[in-house]
């Protein structure tokens, strides 16, 4: 159950690593999930490790026979977020990590673009850019530039969703540092949980990505599908 992996903190905590640079090194071998210090480096290593200045891994690319085989991305604390498995240079599966990991089959997903953003999606979105999946909704839009890390943005989100903000953290999406909020909503029928991601774009706009789902489910949740879509997103400098 992916949703049970939420480690609630404080929605007023400062964003960590929002301005820290990430650098790449090559390694001939390594153990997945560890800091790469002390491992044997190689100019043509199988693993390309991108890490923050203290050695905590941001993401790992594993190459096999000259092709990208898998990419594992970590959060700012060093916990695995997702792993993309590739086949014939195309994403095949995204494993969304949590207390119990969820595999999302993306082999049949299609490309969809808007402005500088390109996504792989399981089906064509509706006009309001909402994608209904299972019993919840994945929703996104592209809006004007804003400070996604400010307390004003946090309060605006809280008022707009009539929800409780459980925690917030820095996330990196294709090299862009953004903000992720975890939210909870109490409804007459059942509790629901969700995430809202706000990612500054290269063209002075902001990508908003949100998903809400049932509190407990053993199926791939909308949050897992939203995280898989964000793992596959790409940005251009101009439309």
Radius of gyration: 18 Å
Q: Kindly, what is the distance between the CA atoms of the first and last residues, rounded to a whole number of angstroms?
A: 38 Å
Regions with pLDDT < 50 over 5+ consecutive residues? Answer: 1-12
Calculate the mean pLDDT score and round it. 78
Your description of this structure?
Strand 13 (176-186) and strand 14 form a beta hairpin. The strands form three sheets. A seven-stranded antiparallel beta sheet has the order 1-2-3-4-5-6-7, with helices on one face. It has a six-stranded antiparallel beta sheet with strand order 10-11-15-14-13-12, sandwiched between helices. Residues 1-12 have low confidence and may be disordered. With 239 residues, the protein is mainly beta. The protein has a domain at 2-16 and 109-235: Protein Transport Mog1p, Chain A. It is 9% helix and 46% strand. It contains two helices and 16 strands.
Give the SSE layout.
Elements: E1 23-27, E2 47-51, E3 57-64, E4 67-74, E5 80-87, E6 90-96, E7 102-105, E8 110-114, E9 117-121, E10 130-133, E11 136-144, H1 151-161, E12 164-173, E13 176-186, E14 191-200, E15 205-214, H2 222-231, E16 234-235
Antiparallel strand pairs: 1-2, 2-3, 3-4, 4-5, 5-6, 6-7, 8-9, 9-16, 10-11, 11-15, 12-13, 13-14, 14-15
